[in-house]
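for the recovery benchmark. tokens below, seq after
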């Protein structure tokens, strides 16, 4: 029996453990001192503590994780999302230790992890990229020269950024001067690299992504589009598949471009190509995430494919068993991220013990969570409590089903954003697809606060 070590925690660790059980694989959960009594520890075949509460001393500690993998004779490591999931040094260390990393090759991760290097690669290969700097901008003076050429508004972006961090929109020269140094410092603290580059900011654009699955036998498939436009401060709150209100020609072009990008960078395993879709119908490459995404369940729901299972099989050198023609989506799926936070108080974090949790159910409802009643939402890690996924025959049914499920959900002991998500789903702009990446901050938040405060 082969063994998979899960180098993560919470919901994604549970997700991987359950798929491993389906495949007959032994599982090892790692945990920090904070998570000793957590659900992954209870469900895995084996578990091992890898350090104290701070992530840099536990879930980001490559040496501790590899020591655990060797001690428990792990054949594979699944990195989950966040933490070390896009860290090429970790992938390389796994390879050097003779352990299969469930994800792309280290050199691919290195290319895609450096957003500016990835951007240069896309430009060199003729893919559509948002106008911006030719490379990193290493001084304010250089940034001002680029701004004069590209024009405002602009985004200052961390070259090694991810997860919505290290991004600021600036409207004029004064804002550029004010924010440039701040983003560099944020990037240094968050990613250990203060390099930044500039991109034109596209007003009222949508965030559309395409799920990719590729094996080492030159098979590359796309699993359609996802709409990830509903976000706050670059953090996604609600996602759906397929993306709505896109004409068939544009949708097909985005899907094929994603496949070509994956082939261009010699991609293996599951990955996501992210695009900005402008109001005029043009789309531009934004980045490619070299890991499974938090929102992968909406794609699974409409295609009937277990993407974690596919990840593991690809890592074991299996052929992808379906062709592009056999991949047919059915229905529509929506995912709401339920976080321990208070929207009415500027999304103030609300860590604490889950005193009670009553989950909705029924046909078309899926709950992915790493917690049970009695567990603690710790301030040391991200605030997501669960993901609620609703799947209907069409978008309207999925919206109704999702709203009803959110109304059934009960979580005691913390504040959370379920009512905020329910209000979004009921908003006429969301129902009509009249949203963009700043819609929550610029439009909806004020509506919500007027109605609820």
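predicted aa per position
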């Amino acid at each position: 029996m082969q063994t998979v070590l899960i180098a993560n925690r919470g919901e994604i660790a549970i997700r991987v453990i359950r798929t491993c059980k389906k495949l007959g694989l032994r599982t090892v959960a790692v945990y920090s001192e904070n998570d000793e009594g957590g659900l992954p520890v209870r469900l895995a075949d084996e578990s091992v503590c890898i350090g104290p509460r701070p992530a840099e001393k536990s879930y980001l500690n490559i040496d501790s994780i590899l020591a655990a993998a060797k001690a428990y004779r792990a054949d594979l490591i699944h990195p989950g999302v966040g933490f070390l999931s896009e860290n090429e040094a970790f992938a390389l260390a796994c390879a050097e230790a003779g352990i299969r990393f469930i994800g792309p090759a280290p050199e691919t991760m290195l290319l895609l992890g450096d957003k500016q290097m990835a951007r240069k690669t896309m430009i060199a290969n003729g893919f559509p990229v948002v106008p911006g700097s030719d490379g990193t901008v290493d001084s304010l003076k250089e940034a001002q020269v680029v701004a004069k050429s590209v024009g405002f508004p602009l985004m200052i972006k961390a070259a090694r950024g991810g997860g919505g961090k290290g991004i600021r929109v600036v409207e004029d020269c004064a804002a550029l001067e004010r924010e440039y140094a701040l983003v560099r410092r944020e990037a240094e603290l968050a990613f250990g690299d203060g390099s930044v580059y500039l991109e034109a900011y596209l007003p009222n654009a949508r965030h559309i992504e395409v799920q990719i699955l590729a094996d080492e036998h030159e098979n590359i498939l796309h699993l359609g589009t996802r709409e990830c436009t509903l976000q706050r401060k670059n953090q996604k709150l609600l996602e759906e598949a397929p993306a709505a209100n896109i004409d068939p020609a544009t949708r097909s072009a985005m899907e094929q471009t994603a496949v070509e990008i994956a082939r261009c960078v010699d991609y293996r395993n599951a990955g996501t190509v992210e695009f900005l879709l402008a109001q005029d119908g043009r789309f531009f490459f934004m980045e490619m995430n070299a890991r499974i995404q938090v929102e992968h369940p909406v794609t699974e729901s409409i295609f009937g494919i277990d993407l974690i299972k596919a990840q593991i099989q690809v890592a074991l050198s299996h052929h992808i068993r379906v062709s592009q023609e056999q991949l047919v989506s059915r229905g529509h799926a929506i995912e709401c991220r339920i976080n321990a936070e208070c929207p009415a108080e500027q999304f103030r974090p609300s860590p604490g013990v889950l005193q009670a949790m009553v989950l909705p159910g029924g046909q078309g409802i899926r709950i992915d969570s790493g917690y049970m009643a009695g567990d603690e939402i710790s301030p040391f890690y991200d605030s997501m409590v669960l993901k609620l996924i609703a799947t209907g025959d069409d978008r309207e049914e999925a919206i109704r089903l999702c709203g009803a499920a959110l109304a059934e959900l009960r979580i005691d002991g913390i504040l959370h954003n379920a009512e905020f998500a329910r209000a979004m789903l009921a908003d006429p702009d969301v129902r009509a697809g009249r949203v963009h990446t700043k819609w929550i901050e610029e439009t909806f938040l004020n509506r919500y606060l007027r109605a609820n405060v």
